[in-house]
Design a protein that fits this description.
Blueprint lengths: L2 H5 L4 E15 L5 E12 L5 E9 L2 H5 L7 E13 L2 E2 L4 E2 L2 E14 L2
Antiparallel strand pairs: 1-2, 1-4, 2-3, 4-7, 5-6
C-alpha cells in the first residue's frame, strides 16, 4: 500500500519520477491503449518516495514532453483511492483492498 499517498488523498501535488518504458493495455471499451511506466515517484515538497512505480495512460502531455526511457520528469497529480483485488460472487471470494494512485497528471516536463 502507498501510505504516503493515503496521507494526501485528494490533494494536487508536484512529483518527480523516472520514465521507464511504454506498455499497452486493453481499455474498458476493448481497444488497445498505450501506457507509460514511471518508477521511483518522489513528492517534491517532502522529498519522500510515495510509490515505487505507477502506470499512467500515455496522454498528450507525456508526448509533448518528448521523454525517452531513463529521463527524469516532473509533473503534478492528484492522489486518489481505488479498490484493488479479486472478487467472485459465485464462490463468495472477495480479496478487495483499498490502495492509492496518482491521477490526472498535468504540467509534465522533462528535467535536465
Amino acid at each position: 500500500m502507498r501510505k504516503e499517498l493515503a496521507k494526501v488523498e485528494g490533494e494536487r501535488k508536484k512529483y518527480k519520477a523516472h520514465f521507464e518504458r511504454i506498455g499497452k493495455k486493453i481499455n474498458y471499451k476493448g481497444y488497445s491503449e498505450e501506457t507509460i511506466l514511471l518508477k521511483d515517484i518522489v513528492d517534491v515538497e517532502t522529498a519522500l518516495i510515495v510509490a515505487d512505480h505507477i502506470w499512467f495512460t500515455y496522454t498528450e502531455g507525456f508526448v509533448k514532453a518528448r521523454i525517452q526511457p531513463g529521463d527524469a520528469i516532473e509533473f503534478e497529480a492528484r492522489s486518489k483511492s481505488y479498490a484493488k483485488g479479486y472478487t467472485n460472487k459465485a464462490l463468495k471470494i472477495s480479496n478487495k483492498a483499498t490502495d492509492y494512485k496518482l491521477s490526472n497528471p498535468t504540467k509534465i516536463k522533462k528535467l535536465a
